[in-house]
Amino acid sequence: MTVPTELLQCEGVGRRFGSVTAVDDVTLGVRSGEVLGLIGPNGAGKTTLVNLMSAYLSPTSGEIKFAGESIAGCKPHELARRGIARTYQNVCLFEQSTVLDNVLTGRHLGFQGGLWQLGRKRHREEARERQLAVELIELLGLAEHMNEDVSAMSYGLRRRVEIARALAIEPQLLLLDEPTAGMTRTESDEVGRLIGELRAGGMTVLLIDHNVRLVSETCDRVAVLDWGRVIAIDEPAEVWADERVREAYLGTGESG
Amino acid sequence: MFEWIPAYQRFLLDVTLIDIILVISLLILFQCGLFSMATAGFAAIGGYTSALLVTDADWPVPLGILAAVFVGATLAVSFGLPVLRLRGIYLALGSLALAQVIVIGIANVGFTNGVFGISGIPTEVTTGWLVAIVAVILLVMELIHRSHFGRAMKAIRLDEHTAAGLGINVFAYRMATFGIGGAMAAMAGALEAHRTAVISPDQYDFGLLVVLLTYMFVGGVEHWLGPVLATIGFRILNENLEFAGTDWENFYYGSILVVVMLLAPDGLTSRRFTQRLARIFRRRPDLAT
Amino acid sequence: MQQTINGLASGSIYALLGLGVTLIWGVLHVLTFTHAQVLTWGAFGSLIAINRGYPVPVAILVGMAVAAGLSVLIDSTVLEMLRRRGASEYAFVVATIGLAFMLESILRNRTRARVEPYSRDGFPRGPIELLGQNVPKLQLAVLATSLIAMAGLAIWLNHTRAGRGMKAVAYSPETATLLGINPRFIYAVAYTVSGMLAALAGVFVAVSTASVSYSSGDRLLLTAFAVIILGGMGSVPGAVVGGLILGVIEVYATVHVSSKFSEVVAYLVILVVLLVRPSGLFGAKEATRV
Amino acid sequence: MIARRVVGALAALMLVTTACGSDDDSSSSSADDENPAASEPVEESAEADDTASTADGASADSDAEPSEATVVRVGVPLDLSGPAAISNIGLSELSAMELALEEVTASGMLGETTIEMIPIDTKGDKQEAVAGVLKLIEQDDVDAIVGFTLTPSFLAAGPQAVEAGLPVIAVGVAAPGITEVGDNVFRIIPQVSSLYAANDAMIAETLGATSAAYLYTSDSETTVGIHEARLAALEDAGIETKSVQSNTTADTDFRAQLTEIQNSGADIMVISGFPGQFAGQFLQAEEIGLDIPVLSTDGSGRNEVLDQAGSAMQCVIYTASWAAQNETGRNPHFVEAVQTELDDEADLYYAAGYDGMWMFSTALADAGSADPDAIVEALNNITDFEGAFGVYEYDDNREPDISGINLQIQDNEVIPWTPDTQCER
Q1: What is the CATH number of the domain that holds A5?
Q2: What gap in Å lies between CA D398 and CA D184, rounded to an integer?
Q3: DSSP string, B105-136
Q4: Which of A134, B76, D102, D404 is deepest in the core (most CB within 10 A)?
Q5: Chain mean position to CA D255
Q6: Tally of domains in chain A
């Protein structure tokens, strides 16, 4: 068996906020083409880690590499350009805009034309991007909501819009921060199937979720974070059997 | 081209067109989520740059105005570097401090002729020029609005962090709009100087900014049409409020602002307000039946 | 020494102004452009009381009552309606600008646009010997009253139920509601306090110039904004320190640079402070959403 | 529901509007009410003027009865709104012009001809001034312009009137160079900067001063102009400059500047400022113990200033272009008329408005027609005009030859000052 290439590597990454250490010496790799689950009790530092990976925060120690190159000093928009897309724990959509507008905004990097590009060429580009956005919306099963205002939509639908928008930048790596929170079981199953399809298409995914069933079913490997440290990283079944993982969860009374 | 209009109406038209440029210079920043109050300062820079070059160095008027645009853009970009670190209300008030420094500075240094201002500025700016300039500006605004640039600006305005996550270079956009906004305000200032023939520091005071802000917010910030219509509307209103007499003019102006904000908190052309209007008008026939 | 007292005295008036604006911002997230008008109305309220022969302390209380009443009226009508509509903070800006125009216009007409004499009888007059310096009593009184008012405000905010309720509402109106605090009541309280502080500042301005007119507050609105941005929006200690610093800077600029440039120097200092600390001296760092 | 309530409120507002509006109209046209002729349609006034000018031109004497009633329209652009310090001036000028017009009408000196004043608020704003004057010229078709409060408004809008060839009498502006704008521009208030410069050195010498400190208002061209002229004149006279301090029109606290002046050890303090701020300045000077002699600016003796700070202004000396104490010309009558008709104390700005309207009416009567050239000629030829500023006439530069009067404040009263005047502090 060949050693799989790691698309994203964290090497001894730490992040402190004042005297609080949110992420502590994390070494972790997301392999190309895999779905890696990231779980851990509340406050374990999962979202901080995602913010570090998407350059919203910079680490106070260690280094993060994407596709073999350090992302130190990178701005979030540069990382997006390099192929990392993400969703947010608390759903950050552009309110009072339609689903199509939101997803089309995600296509920003797809546009090449300048302001002065007029006429046919401009229309062609706009039409092409619009088509791509529409396809993504359909893929996420949102076709009937295409022109609805996202502010008025249900939580589950909003999460799906956010995933569609993240996919719109055609990322190599997709960071999903609790994509099924607040969803019904059928809805989250839907998301599970979608992640499966994405992996089949060659996408690398980092999935943070509390839904153990979803994580077990969709992830190739699972990493467990507790108090900012990685306490286990392995295939799902192995991880659930790990003593430290059980302790971390039972000890803190995870409600999930 | 517009000589058939009586001079009085033509002057009002010119003033309105210049106001439109100023409002757009404010709006383009706001569309990127920047609430900047430096407009009056850049207008002063533009007015003085052109006025001084034309009167003291005998530059031709068009060249003076171009120089004003250049100086406005340069200053905006160089001030933008530090000032754009500020966010929200801090940017608003920080840029206001910047404008105050510029205007009070102009009033107290020698080469600008201080509080006396500059008079006898050549007035070659015609209504034709202004119409052409405003038309070009509005055309560009519409092009931006319909392109992915406009979408990116809206995304930045609504949520800059998320916009960045989608690959939008927030800083570059803000820098560019700050520069363009500064250039436009400076151009408006220069045009104003060459229209009214006299400039002095006191005209770039807080009051000017307040007027522009109300035009912009009453019109609504989603599309350039709102502020432009509001500017025209307020000009017409201003000319017709005279019936109220000097004493009560401000009272009516103020009450109009309050009432508009109560009816349409996001401006008269905001989707929220137009949709509500549409609902009201749709409901009418129902009531009748 | 004398100049430092000059700076602190005018700075304490700035601080009173800044406190009123910062309270409103902290609790309601509204930048209130009516503040200068509230100040002027308060000053006129006290002037009427003085002209009717009431003693100075009573007259000041009357002025404060007028200003507080006016503030609460503004809040419970226009601003409450805007809140119900979920208006953006910019709608509040425009609406308060509109209200400021209306209030100024009314006052202008009531006073026939005149500068009214403001009697100094009953206020401290003349100098007092202090550390070998002749210090005007009025200045000391202004300084002392302001400091007492500020200290009282600080104690009230931190040690009373209403004060703590205000902090809770500032933090999150929803959470406060769950804790049994009525945000509307707290808004009214904030506007009352803000109005009272403005009136106090208005009386001090009126008495130190012995006059008051409908435009007395004009420049002070900008000053109030300068104070809170220097100190940090929504921060009570920030407004106090910001106000005092601003007053002292202006005076020192007059002494060491030139009185022509004292305002420019003050604004430059504000800009520099902002560049070093983008949220002012005491401002909370604006939270990022992710 | 709510929308309907707001609409209702708006409608109510509109009612108030019209009510107030009509109220205003009646007050501003009070001059017309006394003369029913003014209520005649004025649209054809241009033609009417032409006929009148030929008719009057034939008789060439205002005593002759013109065959037809004529309305002469006078545009009155003034800064009537803005900060109290400025709007006060404009409002004073306007009411004094109305007062003068009533007197002119009552005197019958114009025969059947009546003057209609068309006031316009230029709001202390150059654009408003240009727009307003253009409107007066084009829409209201005025025959002359008598007005202007602030210099910037005049400099922006004056050229429009000059271009239209209308006679212009600038009532308020006091800066140099006003009449250079055009051959048809006249002024009432003399160039105050030269007035002060001429008197200051003599006063300083009388006081035995060898050094001076200055406090001036730095954001108005009027006070800056005065200050610069005074500083130059005193330095020419060998008076050393110890300290120069400034304040803005919006300032309320002058203690820092006054402390600097006190620390400078100057013999006298020269204040170039506005009446609205004198009280604060003098009271604060008294508070910090600054007790050197003061040369102040015109307006120091205004009643409200003395009411506010008279006790702190003992022995303050200033030069005035107009003074209530002046017994020459129409001044005694003017002072009384302002008291009885306007229920106020006469001052410089009332005087300027009053003389402006009288001056125009006199020229109109002399010219016998509203023809612009005739009026300009009449203004140039007026001799020994009797006004509130005393008896004066225009020199070759269309400047009034008003020499001014030195005054001193003693025991809350304004008295004429001469080098022999004694004052107890």
Answers
A1: 3.40.50.300
A2: 8
A3: HHHHSTTTTGGG-B--------HHHHHHHHHH
A4: B76
A5: 30
A6: 1
Residue B147 Cα, gap to closest chain D Cα (Å) = 36
Among partner residues B87, B105, B253, which is closest to C264 by beta-carbon distance?
A: B105
- The CA–CA distances, whole Å, from C25 to C97, C220, C283, D11, D291 equal 15, 17, 12, 33, 45
Q: How many other CB atoms are found less than 10 A from the CB of residue C57?
A: 9
Band of the pLDDT at B231, cuts 50, 70, 90? very high
What six digits make up the tokens of C118? 């403001």
| pLDDT, position D68 | 56
Asked if B121 has any chain C CB less than 8 Å from its own CB, the reply is no
Query: In whole angstroms, what is the distance from residue D157 CA to residue D76 CA?
Result: 12
Name the pLDDT band for B189 (thresholds 50, 70, 90).
very high
Determine whether the interchain pair D13/B248 forms a contact, defined as Cβ–Cβ distance below 8 Å: no
A253: which residues sit within 8 A by CB, 6+ positions away? none
- Taking only the tens place, the pLDDT of each residue in C110-123 is 888 888 888 888 88
pLDDT at C72: 95
Q: What are B89-107's pLDDT values in tens digits?
A: 888 888 999 999 999 999 9
Q: How confident is the model at residue B155 (pLDDT cuts 50, 70, 90)?
A: very high
DSSP conformational letter for D121 = E
Note whether residue C82 is domain-resident: yes
**Predicted pLDDT of residue D384:** 93
- b/e per residue C106-115 (b: at least 16 CB within 10 A): bbbbebebbb
Q: How far is CA B265 from the centre of its chain?
A: 20
Between positions 121 and 180 of B, the ones with CB within 8 A of A are: 140, 143-144, 147-149, 151-152, 154-155, 158-159, 161-171
**A interface residues, B as partner, C-beta within 8 Å:** 54, 56, 75-78, 80-81, 85-86, 88, 92-97, 101, 104-109, 111, 113, 115-116, 122, 126, 129, 165, 168-169
DSSP, res B205: S
Beta strands in A54-138 (DSSP E): 61-66, 69-70, 84-86
CA distance D57 to chain B (A): 31
Please report which confidence band the pLDDT of residue C285 belongs to, taking 50, 70 and 90 as the band edges: low
Q: How confident is the model at residue B56 (pLDDT cuts 50, 70, 90)?
A: very high
Which range in A115-124, C122-131, D36-45 is most confidently predicted, on average pLDDT? C122-131
Report the pLDDT value the prediction gives residue D117, as an integer from 0 to 100: 95
Neighbours of chain B (3+ CB pairs under 8 A): A, C, D
**CA nearest to C230, candidates C252, C253, C247:** C247
Instruction: Answer whether residue A68 is part of any domain.
Output: yes
Task: Report domain extents, chain D.
Answer: 6-190+327-392, 192-320+405-416
Burial D121-132 (b: 16+ CB within 10 A, else e): bbbbbbbbbbbb
CA atoms of A150 and A159, how far apart (whole Å): 10
Q: How far is CA A112 from CA A107, C108, D275, in A?
A: 11, 58, 64
Task: For residue D7, give how far its alpha carbon lies from the nearest alpha carbon of chain B (Å).
Answer: 9
CA distance C155 to chain D (A): 30
Give yes or no for a contact between D66 and D56, defined as CB atoms under 8 angstroms apart: yes
**Structural domain containing residue A33:** 1-83+220-256
Contact B22, B36 (CB under 8 A): no
- Under-70 pLDDT residues of chain D: 1-69, 85
* CATH class entry, domain D6-190+327-392: alpha beta
Query: Would the pLDDT of C176 be above 80?
Result: yes
What pLDDT does residue D13 have? 38
CATH architecture of D192-320+405-416: 3-Layer(aba) Sandwich (3.40)
What ipTM does the predicted assembly reach?
A: 0.83
Average pLDDT value over all residues in chain B: 89
Range of the domain at C203: 2-114+133-216
pLDDT at C122: 84
